[in-house]
From TrEMBL:
Residues that, per the record, bind substrate: 44-47, 100-103, 113-116, 140
Active-site residue numbers: 122
Protein name: Multifunctional fusion protein
Subcellular location: Cytoplasm
Residues of the full protein shown: 297 to 538 of 544
Role of this protein: Catalyzes the phosphorylation of ribose at O-5 in a reaction requiring ATP and magnesium. The resulting D-ribose-5-phosphate can then be used either for sythesis of nucleotides, histidine, and tryptophan, or as a component of the pentose phosphate pathway.
Family: Belongs to the ribose 5-phosphate isomerase family.
Organism per entry: Fructilactobacillus fructivorans
Tree of life domain: Bacteria
Subunit structure: Homodimer.
Length: 242
């Protein structure tokens, strides 16, 4: 088989347990690299949660002087429940390092975030950060982002107009719903519309067009933001942005 085909086979045959193990491996590897005396952005999602727990252990055991900023209400709650030292994002103007998960990442380290609906706060903290490290399991790493789902956060007022625009433009939009059937609202009370990235998409152009459409608050394309990708595995892979 071609290498790409083998990659697909190995990704689709991974069990849920194997994927969880890789998430934890990536998170623990990242936590071990965090330097002392920094302001640290805490990402959102299940992989980021492994990281939060691992860095909390180091802070407590080693008595580290690390102040944290959360990227979602969920992460804030987790960090507070662990008694971590938290800062209000409005009281700082920069973050030294943010460690976050991702939904899909390509070989240029461009990626998609927002599977956990936290893309707006995540992008805010990421753009304030001197360095962004993403931690993922191996199923998230792709040659291209074409065909992947991309969340677009819209204000409820006029969200239907954005949906129509995305539909007419051929992006196959779908509003995101919660498991109980209600429409999902983000931490800012907005709606999410998931679109599909076309095969021939120019990512920079797509990001620009989405951002400039009235009613769109943010989108989950994170271009030129991730500085280092850590992929879990028995041998952890570390890839720096080219
Ligand atoms: C939340 C995110 C998450 O980082 C992303 O969805 C990955 O989540 P998980 O680690 O649970 O797979 O962007 O908005």
């Amino acid at each position: 088989y071609e290498k790409d085909v083998l990659d697909v086979i190995s990704k689709t045959s991974k069990t849920k347990e194997a994927i969880e193990k890789e998430k934890k491996q990536a998170a623990e590897y990242a936590a071990a690299q965090v330097p002392n005396h920094i302001v640290l952005g805490l990402g959102s999602g299940s992989t980021a949660a492994y990281f939060v727990k691992a860095i909390n252990e180091r802070i407590k055991k080693e008595g580290l002087d690390i102040q944290c900023v959360a990227t979602s209400v969920g992460t804030e709650k987790l960090a507070e429940s662990l008694g971590m030292p938290m800062l209000d994002v409005n009281t700082i103007d920069r973050v030294d390092l943010t460690v976050d998960g991702a939904d899909a990442v390509d070989d240029k380290l461009n990626g998609i975030k927002g599977g956990g609906a936290a893309l707006l706060f995540e992008k805010l903290v990421a753009t304030m950060s001197d360095k962004n490290i993403w931690i993922v399991d191996s199923t998230k790493y792709h040659k291209t982002l074409a065909g992947q789902k991309l969340p677009v956060e819209v204000i409820p007022f006029g969200g239907m107009g954005v949906f129509r625009y995305l539909n007419e433009a051929g992006y196959k939009p779908e509003f995101r719903f919660r498991d109980d059937g209600d429409i999902l609202q983000t931490d800012s009370g907005n709606y999410l519309i998931d679109i599909t990235i076309p095969d021939d998409a120019d990512l920079a152009k797509l990001a620009h067009n989405l951002k400039n459409y009235t009613g769109v608050v943010e989108h989950g394309l994170f271009l030129n933001i991730c500085d280092q990708l850590i992929i879990g595995g028995d041998k952890v892979r570390v890839i720096d942005r080219p």
